[in-house]
């Protein structure tokens, strides 16, 4: 798809600019960016850090060619300006050395996969206003210690963004659009690309040993601390989820009670009107907006419960995969011992 | 080819046993900057950031390129840019300080001496890293130098660049897996299970090799090497001696724990789908 786009002339591409952009299918990251993200996140782990991604938006591929980290922000208002200055300074300096100056998103580190928060969604909305297509890359340093590269590229789904923008997060609209909690975030597959020079260097520099550090990490038998923390987070999230459910129950109970009150009031009005008609007077209106029982109750936002549900399912997935790996390791140990 | 055992060219014995360690990120950064250099520049130079480890080695962790102009007789370096980038980087990681500078291209040229002088004003005893992007000798040579001043009496004669041992720590690169970093394109990041499979295959290959070696030695094909023999016996004896029944119990207990966790996670999932149905299906009458 990218090569087809390159073979058209510039004029043609400029002319078709108005067409709807093809949906984002793949995020292509350079090895350099991966190394930088890993270095930044592991250096500051367990603190959570963020950084900016730079690259190009080509057809249905989003290329990420460079990145730079953000300094840890204090919660002070006057340092806000410093943060913006830092960003401008970095972008300016990088442009001088021919690095792609185009922001395509940001990356952040996470702890055991607990990244679905309202802040993430707000950041997405902020970025989306300025950039047509942006992506968020999540890196989990604790999971990568187990030997897997825990890198994910996320984007908000379009239907969710529409709903969020219009702030219509109630049951009706959600059922209309058939949006469930899995539809909030879309995970985009990642491709890795390296320049030929770098791959030549890496091929030369690869150590000859038959076993690498990643093997040592994967064959480690003690995963208990990781699992324990995962379970702790899971339990906390379940508590949050049950709290949200209670909120909903409360709301529905109040709603039905309010409706019952409305019915009785209406009955009384109707009876009154019958009496008035019999007496020959004007019937009173059947609605009374000033009456507090007619005030519409605010429906609690479902956003939080969706996010929590997402997190819980994330934890479950992680537990599953780590347990699967532990199984393989245990069977391996058993086989070795028998020999 | 193992670049870890560099031979150190010494004309004079080094007064300090200085050595350097380079992280793979630095190499990646340098290559990327080289690829993006402006057309008229033949080489790129830049600053190396890192720290000085307590045992005297220089740990090179990060780098950034600095625009420069080079002609046959003079060298101009954008010092403001250098200081700006330094302060930006230090906002993120204040522990990383200047430890030297790098340049692409093979060997040390005349202009490098001037640049080295500039950097020696910023930090004491800077390390000069050359990364040969042109693959001049048909191999990737990455060398580190320090400069020693040659003086005759009171007069400065020249600055001599002496090579110091360089350790390319590829630990982080190994963690990610060289397969991702080596090729020019990887279509999909490997999942956990694939990684596990690859690891187990490698382990199996190692065990096979060892068995073959032992067999060969026993049958007399290969001359026995005592050190290797001792290694093997150490490894085998490091497996803790547990009776088979105790070992089985251990394994089964762990298996049961994992199964319990799996069960809990599936219950949680069911609960989630149920909760979702309840929340969104409730109709307002």
Overview of the molecule:
The complex is a heterodimer of chains A (339) and B (285). Chain A has 339 residues and is α/β, with parallel strands linked by helices. Chain A has twelve helices and eight strands. Chain A starts with a helix and ends with a helix. An eight-stranded mixed sheet of chain A has the order 7-6-5-4-2-3-1-8. Chain A has helices spanning 2-7, 10-15, 31-44, 78-96, 118-130, 141-144, 158-165, 171-177, 196-205, 213-218, 224-279, 303-338; strands spanning 26-30, 50-58, 61-69, 103-109, 135-139, 151-156, 185-188, 190-193. Helix content of chain A is 55%, strand content 14%. Chain B is α/β, with parallel strands linked by helices. In chain B, strand 2 and strand 3 (58-66) form a beta hairpin. Chain B is built from eight helices and eleven strands. The longest helix of chain B has 38 residues, at 244-281. The interface between A and B is large, with 96 and 92 residues.
Could you outline the blueprint of secondary structure elements for this entry?
The complex is a heterodimer of chains A (339) and B (285).
Chain A: H1 2-7, H2 10-15, E1 26-30, H3 31-44, E2 50-58, E3 61-69, H4 78-96, E4 103-109, H5 118-130, E5 135-139, H6 141-144, E6 151-156, H7 158-165, H8 171-177, E7 185-188, E8 190-193, H9 196-205, H10 213-218, H11 224-279, H12 303-338
Parallel strand pairs in A: 1-3, 1-8, 4-5
Antiparallel strand pairs in A: 2-3, 2-4, 5-6, 6-7
Chain B: E1 20-22, H1 24-35, E2 45-52, E3 58-66, E4 68-70, E5 75-77, H2 79-92, E6 97-104, H3 110-122, E7 127-131, E8 142-152, E9 155-164, E10 166-168, H4 171-176, H5 178-182, E11 185-186, H6 192-219, H7 226-237, H8 244-281
Parallel strand pairs in B: 1-3, 1-10, 6-7
Antiparallel strand pairs in B: 2-3, 2-6, 4-5, 7-8, 8-9
